[in-house]
Amino acid sequence: MKRSVGIVVDHPERDLGGIVFLATLLVDAGVNVRLYPWNLVSRSRGLLLVEQSDDLVILNYLRPNNSYLGPILEEAGIPFAVLETEGGVLVSIEKYFEKALPKEDWQRVSRYFSWGNELAEGFVERGLIDKDRVVVTGSPRMDFYVAPLANSLVRQDGQGSDDIILVNGNFTLSNPAFQTPEKEIDMLVNQLGYDRVEMEQMLERCKKAKAEMIRLTIELAKRYPAREVVFRPHPFENVESYREIFPDLPNLSVTREGTVDRWILRSKLLLHRSCSTAVEAALVGVPAVSPQWVVPMGVQPTSEACSIPVEDEEALFALADQIDRDAYTFPGHLPPQEIIEDFFFRVDGESGRRVAEGVLKFLESSPRNESMSTSIEDTDPGGGVSLQRNSFRVRCQRFFGRILSRGHHNEESHVDENEWVEPWSKTAKYFDADAVSKAQAMIGSAYKDLTVPEVSNEQAVIGGRVIPFVQLKS
Do the strands 164-168 and 454-462 form a parallel or antiparallel pair, or are they unpaired? Predict the structure, then answer.
């Protein structure tokens, strides 16, 4: 029987391309891969991962809001790794580790695939993870800025004009996609331990910064009517709120369609303020312009170091005029090589392969996981989960049964099997086999020697609720 690896997908608009590339490499090496939506992993309190019983699960991060997964997977005998969704651009290493989970949580991690040297060294120096479990790989999604994936990405895009002006928003606190700003602050305070007063002050800064970036975007569209101006909100922002604000200008659009790399590769100029995409723009020679009078939620030194600062609006438009006339020479010192090595290791198109090699080496040294080979059997019409066959499943039932059956306490009550799927399917975090196949087709056109996976929609049933996921296999 082939080995299997499960990968948790957080936000497909940001993460799916790199994850599908990693999955394709693993399938090419003879490993089956399952892609699990983070929203539904969370709703099932991790029982989806227990039920599928992969030989290795790769988590999107390990933070307070998903720390419960470590003990569950450990007791189930399912090893897990971490490949951070946002492991490159950090406010600071110190702040990252201030919010990090304690050593006992990180000691459960079988492999930590680090974006860069700085974070890897931080884990080892603080004794959180043993050195032999940390692998510096870079991020697979950065591979799309390097040929042949970059060329394939542009060919697949095939729409709109090149040399656009791109404005990237990152105002997730004042304009969150999935809840109100007040609830966003509650989550940051109650789940992640942030200070409420500090978060409320940050919210006010965020509101002002958002308004100013909207104003600058409109000015750019008016100043350069022959050039397409695209405002792209952060993946965790509410897109519709912008469409209600921006005026109807023929060359101005608001979109979050596709991953940000395809937009950067088409750009002449990127306007941002302390957005991680500044690093990505600098990698491909796109000037990332940062208006210094706009006060961000928090300054990201890495982003600013890869940017071209402008001190006032006059300087901004003088620079934009130069770029528009092709009279601007991109600075040779950008991006700083030490930043790439510290936070992204190497942007050489090989990060996905390095992660895949790390996964395969781990599987070679790890026995096949057969401890949970039978599926979870739903026998409770009230929505509880009956976990058979071993004591661990019984303990899962006791611990999570009330959560999964909440609101369904009598035999006559009915569990809606789509209770979890329908809300998720209406968000930007939804993905299915078609989305994965589209990403894989682009990867296949770049790497014609790789095995083309068979991609299918699959599902599990937990507590009477259907949980879909996507499988890739040869």
Answer: unpaired
